[in-house]
Amino acid sequence: MKTKFLILGAILATVPFTKSFADDGGDLFKANCGVCHTVGKGKLVGPDLKGVETRHSESWLLKWVKSSQTLVQSGDKEAIKLFTDNSSIPMPDQALNEDQIKSVLAYIKTGGEPVMAATNPVSTGPDAITVAMQKSTVDKKDSGSLLTLFSFSEYLMMFLMGILLIIIYILSLSIKTLTEKVKEANKA
Question: What is the DSSP letter of 36?
Answer without folding.
Answer: T
